[in-house]
Amino acid sequence: MNAVDEIRGTAAGTAPVPLSVLDLVTVGSGRTASDALRTSVEIARLAESRGYHRHWVAEHHSMPGVASSSPAVILAHLAAHTERIRLGSGGVMLPNHAPLVIAEQFGTLEALAPGRVDLGLGRAPGTDGATAAALRRSDTLHEGADDFPQQLAELIRFLDDDFPDGHPYARIHAVPGPVQATSPGGVQSPARPPVWLLGSSGFSARLAGALGLPFAFAHHFSAQNTLPALELYRESFRPSAVLDAPYALIGVSALAADDEREARRQVLTGALSVVRLRTGRPGLIPTPKEAEEYAFSPMEREFVDSWLANVVHGTPDAVRTGLDDLQKRTGADELMITSNAHGGDVRLRSYELIADAYGLPARVVRR
Questions:
Q1: What pairs with residue 92 in β-bridges?
Q2: N vs C: which end of the chain shows fewer Cβ within 10 Å?
Q3: Could you tell me the pTM of the whole model?
């Protein structure tokens, strides 16, 4: 499989583009992180059986309701419970880690699940400033335009094992990795995970285009920037050894239920969770009853209405129509769906209903 084949998906059923899953490993009130991780396995297996293209896990820190602080660990677990679906990070926050460490982690994942691992990279910390400083052991947060491209270039050098002679890292190798294929008697595959850039503004869009890399945009929390960022990516794109034309996916918050009222009840839990996060009160994902009984202030209610306007929710047919319309408006090459709700059963049901709405195939998955 070449690099382009690993990036570009194929639409299944009647979906206009490939459909994928973004998993935040959310923890609901009254549930544990173990419960959330078991749900992630169930979602990955369901997604694989129904023809979703990939399943990504996002890096977040210091958030009680999000148990995805270690994407590489979770992906290794998912790899052990799946066979075909692509797995990846959506994303690993590059400034939080040494590039060599990421190259080693994802080289290990590639060895565990050959040919189906994606490395999505973000520039933001995935948390607040104090937590980012604790992660990086520094009070200086390197997120500027000068730092991220340099870190990215270093990471790609480690992944490809091609530092030039004379470079301080020329004799350092990320293992597992290509160096094993060039060692005496080596039979290690030289393949490595394709790199994606993630973004919620124009910086990563422009950089991804200039480098000829695939781009993933966080429409689910930065909808106002979606069209400008995608336009910038396409205008900036230069063909590369990875891609001969732009390839952009967008993260979409969507939840389908058997009726519209139930869908509204479920997405309100995610909205309340975001309200609490943005007002400095992060916690577990509340129950539908708690969300319904919560006394939103006028300012909070305005925020919730604005937030839910960008969550595609309702009956399966309504969600299909909403996703189709969004794809047409953005020209996205892939839709990556995240379903934020209190219960894992609700999220599983949503992915199943969306698959049914598009007539995605059902395959038997060995257990």
A1: 121
A2: C
A3: 0.94
Among positive and negative, which fits the CA dihedral 190, 196, 152, 57? negative
Rounded Cα–Cα distance for residues 339 and 241 (Å): 34
Encoded tokens for 178: 């290509």
Quote the DSSP letter at residue 184.
T
Amino acid, single-letter form, for residue 90: G
Comparing C-alpha atoms, which of 29, 22, 26, 97 is closest to residue 54?
A: 22
Largest CA-CA distance found in the chain, in angstroms, rounded: 69
Distances (CA, A) of 148 to 96, 125, 153, 161: 11, 12, 9, 19
109-113, long-range: CB within 8 Å, 24+ apart, which pairs? 109/72, 109/75, 109/76, 109/79, 109/193, 110/176, 110/189, 110/191, 110/192, 110/193, 111/176, 111/188, 112/76, 112/79, 112/80, 113/79, 113/82, 113/87
Whether residue 130 is predicted with pLDDT greater than 90 in this model: the reply is no
Q: Which amino acid is at 174?
A: A
3-state secondary structure of 222: coil
* Distance, CA of 303 to CA of 269 (rounded, Å): 14
Mean pLDDT of all residues in 286-308: 96
**Least confident segment among 94-98, 123-127, 164-168, 293-297:** 123-127
Cβ count near 75 (within 10 Å):
27
Torsion of CA 82, 85, 86, 87, to 10 degrees: -40
Q: What is the pLDDT of residue 367?
A: 46
